[in-house]
Structure formats: structure tokens, C-alpha cells
Amino acid sequence: MNDLIHLRRAHVSLVIDARGGALPRVLHWGADLGALTAADLNALSTALDRQTPPGTLDAPWQLTTLPDESEGWSGRPGIQLRRAGRLHRPRWALDSIHAEGDAIEFTATDPDGALLLTQRVTLGAGGLALVDASVRHLGGADAVPVEVAWFEPTLPVSTTVSHLTTFDGRWTREKRPVTTAFPVGAVSRQSRRGRPGHDAATMLLASEGEPRWQHGRIWASHVAWSGDTTNRTDRITDSATLIGGGELFRPGELVLDPGDEYRAPRVVFAYADDGMDGIAAQVHTWVRSRPTHPRSDRPFTLNTWEAVYFDQDPVRLLALAERAAAVGVERFVLDDGWFPHRRDDTTSLGDWVVDEAVWPQGLAPLADRVHELGMQFGLWFEPEMISLDSDLARTHPDWLLHDPHHLDHDPGLSWRTQYVLDLANPDAYARVLGQISALVADLGIDYIKWDHNRDLVESEHDGIPGTHAQTAAVLRLIGALKERHPGLEIESCSSGGARTDLGILQVTDRVWASDSNDPVERQDIQRWTGLLLPPELVGAHVGPTESHSSARVTALSYRMATSLLGSAGLEWDILACDDDETAAITRFSALYRELRPIVHTGRVVHPELRDPAWRVTGHVAADAASAVIVVATVSSLEDARAERLRIPGLDPQRRYRLRVRDEIGETKMGWVVPPWVTDGMTPAGSVLPGSVLGGVGIQLPTLWPCQALVLHLVAVD
Questions:
Q1: CA atoms of 649 and 651, how far apart (whole Å)
Q2: How far apart are alpha carbons 8 and 99 in whole angstroms?
Q3: In sequence order, what are the beta bridge partners of 94?
Q4: Catalytic one among 451, 455, 501, 509?
Q5: Whole-Å CA distances, 460 to 145, 191, 406, 549, 703
Q6: DSSP structure class, residue 638
Q7: Which of 101, 142, 191, 276 is buried most deeply by CB count within 10 Å?
Q8: Cα angle vertex 500, ends 603, 161, to 5°?
Q9: Cα-to-chain-centroid distance, residue 662
């Protein structure tokens, strides 16, 4: 136990001081320190000590892994507990500590509270720091219960950080970055929606100067939880600067009886000295290393929502499936409207049986034909919700997740005329699991679009706030479905991008980034969603010429190029497409299949350009042998002569064939069209040294507003 422990992985170091009987202290998290001897680690500890006795505060100045007031810490405590309604201040005594490979795990007890604390810190793939923690009530049957007010892992960051970036947004405009001066004091950013929300903080980015994509030191954190959360920063003038977070509880929501254990959501921490692209690369590397990460090619998907909305007609949908297969669709998803009386969004949620009035032969003929055509079959559900106008609500009005004191006369605030089903109720859970599982088995469903279209308001389960129990039940439910049906994939859609966290991705295979199909908005929504999630997990579909969410009209080539930045597909009535559009979609689906091995495995890079009209996103293969670059504009350019594009991540010792993939159709350009563009439209392309592409750059054409080029680079030597 009397050790200084140094974890190293992928250019990241974490040094923990486990000497003495108190909780371990984090001495350093950040840049790799190289191989350090025991003497070196002792010297590091000495170098970081603030003082020796006598001093103004007779306590260690380096914070423990769970800082509290007993250490002289005046920031937000790492854990806050209550016993019998009174504040309980634990005195943790270290019991055990074990370091192995890339992880350290320790346990500590609080004798007065009969509590056992366990914390595990792991440097995962890519150097991502993963903090897992739990607290257990060890008392006997007559012991006083302990309420957990909060439990929030943190790590220290350099006091040189000057800026903090989080996110905000709204429906169809998710992931809007907000950068401010790093706040002083103990500051928290909380979500109380029962889901992260369209305005979720998502990540904390603590940076030296305003964050850039390619340069600068950044420390980041993300709470991997799909319910209410707290993201926190602490900048205390006489101590360390911290970032971190955890689950947010209402008073009385989490009470540990003797024998109970609470496992806090995992908090992930990323450090990079090469900007936000470095943060994204670290997170993406770890996400892709998970055993549950999708390994098969991400199918080109057609979702029927914007093709038919609620107007489902078997003949038309069979024709749509035929057309989808003809243009290269690999997954056909039937959206909302297939269950009884569902002609609009005011009714029937919770009744997960097929509407025989619309589908007199059931969904089997459609599902069977989709499979015969070589496509996967997907179906939409919203299992966490209930309509008052439903058989389920009429039979079980007590299953609503709302304050029961008001249900007899007022079920509370509706949202899209729907309410929340209490899935922590075992009977409600069993009913939903049984109905969905039966349909998956009967129809051979390959894919579920799992929607969640409202916040939780005044949620209450068994007399206490119910968000924690509901979120845990949802994760169990999705996990149970996948265990029953191996190979089933599930997409997390939450009225768009209101639940796109690493918590829901423990059990799902994809997220829907936004209900916006406006490619101009999508350029930024997908860019910032991609800071946390690799592109293969982010649904990005081609919509119709006029966006249903903004009424903006855009070129088909632009919509296709934007879709290529994620897990591509169609959200469109392609039966109404003319011959030219149909041919273009067919070419695009083939292009997506060709390029997705690069886009879905490569490092995502964002070349830095001065003009805010540009949106350039690159995907560079791990061996730097190939790359796909999408060059787009979101408005008119500031200069008549466009900038040079430098492509990071290429091998300067190789030469690359650069092609403009014109399968997406015509891109409108102005008076500056460099020769490499026209040469690149031929199979031979332009051959350029990697040193030129990455160092000097290539002259960009003068693209018109809302236009895009898809560039494909392949090493030729």
C-alpha cells in the first residue's frame, strides 16, 4: 500500500500516490512522463509538494481521488452522504490497493458509517482514463440507511487551463459548442430532464486558450450515463483544478439499506496535446476497442418516416422496399404508425401489437419480402412511453411514471401528448419485454429504432424520485432483448440527439444525431457529436430536397456528402425521385460501401482553416495508406481566392493519388478551380507527395455556398 504508482498508455501518464492510510492522491494526469524509477517518482512527489510543516494548513496539499472537507478542500465534495437526515462525513481508511497492467483498484472503509468504497482507475485503449466507483452499506439489519446525495469522480487538470467548452442546443440544433473563460469556484452544469437532453453539456473540455482542432493541450471528461447528470469544475485558489461529474439525484432518490451497493456511472477522462482531434482520437480508439462495438459493415439504411409519416399502406411500403433494394439499401426500417390506431402522435404508445386494420396480414409479408430482397428489416418502437389513449393506460393507469398523488385528477404535464411508462415496475417491464421480444422472434427483426420523445417530469417510483430507477431499467431492458436475440442491433433515438452518451451505447449500436435532415445544420451537429462518437455510430441520412425541419433547399450532392460523414442512409420517399435522382442515389450507395472501411475505422481530422464558411472533415486510415476528405461550405466564402487545404495525418514519405469522387453529382464552383480538381475527376487523378498535401497544402476551389466535394486519397508508393 505504500506505493507511488505510475500508469502509462498511448502517450498518457497517470501517477497515483498510495502511501499512507488515507485515500490515494492523484499527482499527475496528462502527458506521458516516460519510464520513471521509484526514485524518480519520489522526486516527482517532492517536486509537487506545496509546503512542509509548519505551514498554514497541516494537511497534504495533493487531493485524494474523492476530495472532501477533511482534507482542507473547499470545493464541491467528491461524495456527499446523509444518515438519518443529517450530513455524514466519512473518514475513509485504505484497506487494499492493487495495481496490475493499466489499472489500479483500491478499497477503503468508513467505520462510522459502515461503508465500503471501491474505486478503479484504468488507462484504456488510446490512453483514455476510465474511473469506476461504488459504495456499499456494510451495516447489519438494524443499521441506519445511508442516502447518497451525490458521488462524482474527478481528476485534476493543469492550472494553466484558461477556457472551458461545453455544449448546448435544442431540437434539430443539437451539440452547439459554448466556450467561456474557465469558471472560478465550484461550478456544476446539470441536466434534470431524465435524459441528457438536446441541451446536454455532453463533455467538459478544459483547454489552454480557446480549443483548436489540431493544436493545444486539452483535458476532457464525460459522464457515461443516460439519465440526470452533473458535470462539474472546481477552480479553487489554494488547491488543484478539477473536472469530472456523476449522476444527479433528487432528495431521497438513492438510499442504501444494509447490504445495498451503488455503482456510480463510469466517468471517462481524455487528455491530448494535439487539440480536439487528439481528444476525439483517444475516445474513438477506446470506443472501437469495446467487445460490443459493431464489427460488421454499417448498412446503408432507409428509414420510412419522411417517406410516409403515419400514412402506412402495405402496397406502397412494399413498393418502397423494392425500390430501396434496387438502389443499394441494405437495411429497411419501418417507422412509427404500425400499431393500433396510430394515425397521429396522440394515441396508442404502449400497445406493441400490429394494427390489423392497416396490416390485415400482419407485418410478416413486408418483413419477409425485405429479407428476400437481401436487406435487414428494422422496426420503430418507443418502449419508455405511454399514451393515455391506449389499451395499456386504460388497463394500468397506475403504471405511469408520474407523481401518484395527482394521477386521479391530473396526470401531469404531457409532452407530444404522451407520458412516461414506469419500467422500474416489474409488471410493466415484463409486458414491454414480452411484446417486443415476440415481434422480434416472429418477424425476424434485425434492428430496432428505439425512440424516446419527451423529458421526464415529476417522475416518481414507489414514493421516491424515479429517474435513477427508470434509467437503470431501460438499460436492463435493452440488454435483455439483445441477450434473447443475439445479433439484434438497436439505435438510440431520443427525439433526435437528446441521448447520445456512452451510457446508452453500452447496450445500443448506433445513435440518431438529430431529427434535422438539413445538411447545413447537420455539418455542425455531426462534427460536434463526433468529438465523442466515431462516425460509424452516428446515423446520417440523405433527406429530400427541401428539409422537413428547416425548409432549406439544398443540392443532392451536398446532402450525400454530408451523409457520408457518418453511418449513411436515406430519410426520403425515393419512390417520388426522378430518374436522375434515382441514378445518383444508386451511385452514392455504391460509393458509401466502397469508402466506409476508411470512414468507419480511420482517424477523424479537421484541417484548420481561417474562413468560418468552411467545414472540412477527414478520415485517415490507421496506416495512412488512404483517406477520405469531405470539403464543404455552409455559407459564402469571405475571400475571392480560397485558402490552401493541408491534410493532416498523411505519410510525408509517400505519394498519393487524389481523386474527386463525382458519384455524388455536380458541385458548383466559382472562378477559382485548380487543375487538381479537374484532373481528380478522372480515374488517374492527381498524384502528389504526402509532404505537399500535409505541409504546403493544395489550393481549394471557390465553392458556392452549401456545396461539397468528396476527396479520396490512396497511397501509390
A1: 7
A2: 12
A3: 108
A4: 451
A5: 20, 17, 11, 34, 54
A6: S
A7: 276
A8: 65
A9: 31
- Residue 451 known to be catalytic: yes
Catalytic residue list contains 515: yes
Q: Which residues of 210-230 are buried (b: 16+ CB within 10 A; e: fewer)?
A: ebebbebbbbbbbbbbbbbbb
Q: What angle do CA 287, 331, 483 make, to 5 degrees?
A: 55
Residue 442 half-sphere exposure toward CB, CA atoms < 13 A: 14
Pairwise CA distance, residues 473 & 148, whole Å: 19
Distance between CA atoms of 369 and 321, rounded to whole angstroms? 8
Write out the DSSP string of 522-544.
HHHHHHHHTTTS-GGGEEEEE--
Dihedral angle, C-alpha 478, 488, 344, 399, nearest 10 ° = -20
For 593-621, give the DSSP string. HHHHHHHTTSEEE----SSTTEEEEEEE-
Secondary structure (3-state) at 441: helix
* CB distance 388 to 415 below 8 Å: no
> 3-state SS of 51-81?
CCCCCCCCCCCCCECCCCHHHCCCCCCCEEE
Mean pLDDT by 10 residues, the chain (717 residues): 86 94 93 97 89 61 85 93 95 93 96 94 98 97 96 97 98 98 97 97 98 98 98 93 98 97 98 98 98 97 97 98 98 98 97 98 98 98 97 95 69 86 98 98 98 95 96 98 98 98 98 97 98 98 96 98 98 98 98 98 97 98 98 95 96 98 95 93 95 97 97 96
Length reported for the chain: 717
At residue 188, what is the residue type?
A: S
Instruction: Please give the helix or strand (H or E) that residue 425 lies within, else none.
Output: none
Beta pairing, strands 708-715 & 655-660: antiparallel
> What are the backbone angles phi and psi of residue 361, rounded to the nearest 5°?
-100, 10
* CA 594 to mean position of chain CA atoms: 26
Specify the DSSP class assigned to residue 494. B
Q: Are 505 and 511 spatial neighbours (Cβ–Cβ below 8 Å)?
A: yes
Q: What is the pTM of this model?
A: 0.97
Q: Which residue has the cell 492522491?
A: 25
579-599 vs 314-327: helix crossing angle, rounded to 10:
60
C-alpha cell, 581: 435522382
Q: What are the C-alpha distances in Å from 279 to residues 213, 410, 531? A: 9, 47, 7
Helices 556-563 and 519-529: crossing angle in degrees, nearest 10, is 10
Q: What is the pLDDT of residues 332-376, one digit of tens each?
A: 999 999 999 999 999 999 999 999 999 999 999 999 999 999 999
